[in-house]
Design brief:
- It is a single chain.
- Helices cover about 65% and strands about 0% of the residues.
- By secondary structure, it is mainly alpha-helical.
- The protein has a single domain, classed as Four Helix Bundle (Hemerythrin (Met), subunit A) (Up-down Bundle), CATH 1.20.120.
- α1 packs parallel to α4.
- The longest helix has about 30 residues.
Length: about 220
Amino acid sequence: MRAHHAIDLHKVLTAPVVLTMMFAYGNFTIAAWTYLALHGSYGIMWRYKSLTFPDRQWNEPVSTAYGVQLFAGLGLYWLAPWLLISSGAEAPGWVVGLSVALCAFGTLLHYGADAQKHFVLSARPGLITDGFFARTRNPNYLGEILLYAGFAVLSMHWVPWLVNAFYWGVVFVPNMRKKDASMSRYPEWEAYVARTGLLLPKLGGRAPLEEAAPTTTS
């Protein structure tokens, strides 16, 4: 099997799992429906992304044991909806609004950057220094962080933040550092690093559009 099989399965199952929780606890509040809409649609969009512009790193063959382990680890993300729905709590309007806004911005960055990376690198290898990558070297990771922050906000519980911190620290940061080390072989790397942030966009100055030459990022 390949890593994306376990990841895609988890993403696609998110909507039915959350809906099952809602029926199991008889919770059909605005907060529960909003969570289903946000996290469920994210999973469906992920599968669509996997079919149309897949990430190469998830296409590597892995053992079945690793795939099961990967799926189980991703299952930690289902703690957020369970904590929200099992509590029966209704979220204040500002919590719902903040969650939706974080997910909207996260979706734009995550899928937009992944699409740019996939199609640019399909045409020519190299360093991408424009578009979503003009100010930050990892707009897709920033997008994922915003998405899961949105889910955690809506859960109104501290446990999802621990899950997020674990993945951000153990998976995201090492991958960003590894990518930086790999991309440093390009001659335009130093100039690109000087005007971009590792994760957060670096503001100020002007990003030269004519530099548009393709990046690998995850």
